[in-house]
Amino acid sequence: MSAHEPLIEVSHLTHVYHPGTPHEVRALHGVCLTVHRAEFLALVGGNGSGKSTLAKHLNALLLPTEGRVVVDGLDTRDPQALWEIRRRVGMVFQNPDNQIVATVVEEDVAFGPENVGLPPEEIARRVEEALQAVGMLDYRRREPHLLSGGQKQRVAIAGVLAMRPQCIVLDEATTMLDPEGRQEVLETAHRLREREGIAVVHITHNMEEAAQADRVVVLHEGRVALEGTPQEVFRDVRRLRSLRLDLPEVAELSACLRRRGVRLEGQPVAVEDLVAQLLRQSGVVV
Q: CA 10, CA 3: separation in Å to the nearest integer?
């Protein structure tokens, strides 16, 4: 299958909490979005922009008020398809302690396969493969409470991997982690995309993390405000600031250099790219 083939298609999605009551809240307004196979998609926006609501629609934890969400040909409104949708799209949430259910790492990763009745030998194979994929095989017999936050999130990801998903949704899964833990989770996500062909949807407030994605979607007040590559999105400085969003440090520096008359090609999103451009302009061969 092509890496550019759609995996999840969101069409004119509207979601209303508490409809018909005084507490009615329209969280999403006609959102259209496609997640492609084996892509790394960052979904960003301020508080209340609808990021987590949209994330929960990707594996049918929420159902549309209006519109459709189709996962690999399966409509989330079809109750007969729910189990298969949730197997294909796994969720990892913000607090790793809320996701771990067992007292030993390998038992936690085995929880999902055991609950769908897989044979013991298949469960053992999946647990080993999942822990190997996230770099936690050496910790298989550890107690989860002895792990760091980043390690716990990698165990949570392994639990999702054991169900053989086609997509993993990280719903602000790095928010509560220190910088080292964030990097562990991001490196794991990139490795899964590159080696296993798993699509990753990363919901985040952190623009430095978003800059590492293949594509960035910006939500504002329940609508898609911007969409494109990191280079395209982070060059639109005025629009991002109007949405009260920060810029990655490299994009901020690039904007400052442009104001001072430095000509740059496109929008560098990595320090190495910006330095290489500046060295070339100085006549240094890189």
A: 18
Q: How many whole angstroms separate alpha carbon 241 and alpha carbon 257? A: 17
Cα–Cα distance for residue pair 38/192, rounded to 1 Å: 9
DSSP letter, residue 120: H
pLDDT: is 167 or 236 the higher one?
A: 167
Name the residue among 84, 70, 93, 94 with its Cα closest to residue 7.
70
Q: pTM, whole model, 2 decimals?
A: 0.87
The two structure tokens encoding residue 151: 């390690």
DSSP 8-state assignment for residue 76: T
pLDDT digits (tens, 9 = 90+) for 209-231: 999 999 999 999 999 999 999 98
The answer to the question of residue 40 being in a domain is yes
1 belongs to a structural domain: no
- Reported as a single tens digit per residue, the pLDDT across 115-167 is 888 999 999 999 999 999 899 999 999 999 999 999 999 999 999 999 999 99
Whether 164 and 111 share a structural domain:
yes
Query: Do the bridges between strand 215-220 and strand 40-44 make them parallel or antiparallel, or are there none, so unpaired?
Result: parallel
DSSP symbol at 22: T
Number of domains in the chain: 2
DSSP bridge pairs for 218: 44, 226
- Give the pLDDT score at 1: 46
- Same domain for 253 and 210? no
Cβ 110 vs Cβ 186: under 8 Å? no
Percent composition of the chain: helix, strand, coil (DSSP 3-state, to 5): 40, 20, 35
Summarised one tens digit per residue, pLDDT across range 48-71 is 999 999 999 999 999 999 999 999
Q: Is 53 helix (H, G, I), strand (E, B) or coil?
A: helix
Q: Which residue range forms the structural domain that includes residue 80?
A: 6-247
